[in-house]
Amino acid sequence: RYKSVVTPRRAAVAIACCWIVSLLVGLTPMFGWNNLNKMRRTQELNGSHTEFVIKCQFETVISMEYMVYFNFFVWVLPPLLLMLLIYLEVFNLIRKQLNKKVSSSSNDPQKYYGKELKIAKSLALVLFLFALSWLPLHILNCITLFCPSCETPHILTYIAIFLTHGNSAMNPIVYAFRIKKFRTAFLQIWNQYFCCKTDKNVSTTTTEPGN
């Protein structure tokens, strides 16, 4: 049913929706949900008449209420748990199919479901790396919000932020190592655009000038 359900038009709409939601969620602090007013009030209460200067640190400019309640509890944790449940169900279904006896009239279901299991493991690895990359930052944000007296080293925050950015670079690497078609495509792109080599498997035809 995949080809009938996932049409190019529906895939394009789904991708567009993901980008729109991501932009809205990611740019929410720029729309006003930030610590700018809080920092101004703090300066006024301190009676400081010096020029207002913002200390550009993540926990200083970004509201922890936004990061924890809106970002983590709404847009990260529920989808993560939902995807975990979906993958558990997928692995359970594949395991049941692999345990069934292969009938003589079937078109090699063991090979088919074995391939499906390999792909499912690759996607589950992507999900695991996502959780590994993003949960440390969100856990630190929860500590900052719910335990104001607790001090976390800035180096841990920087490492957590680095992991979130590094997660974007992990997925192509995982796909390239785990899925043959992705690996072949990446090698072709690398050889063509970085090494200036042409793919030997692609047949080229030359035409002689006609009369």
UniProtKB/TrEMBL annotation:
Entries under InterPro entries matching the protein: Adeno_A1_rcpt (IPR001068), Adenosn_rcpt (IPR001634), GPCR_Rhodpsn (IPR000276), GPCR_Rhodpsn_7TM (IPR017452)
Top-level division of the source organism's lineage: Eukaryota
Molecular-function annotations in GO: G protein-coupled adenosine receptor activity
Membrane topology, record value: Multi-pass membrane protein
Record-annotated membrane-spanning stretches: 12-33, 72-94, 123-146, 158-177
Compartment annotation: Cell membrane
PROSITE patterns reported in the protein's UniProt record: G_PROTEIN_RECEP_F1_2
Protein name as annotated: Adenosine receptor A1
Organism: Todus mexicanus
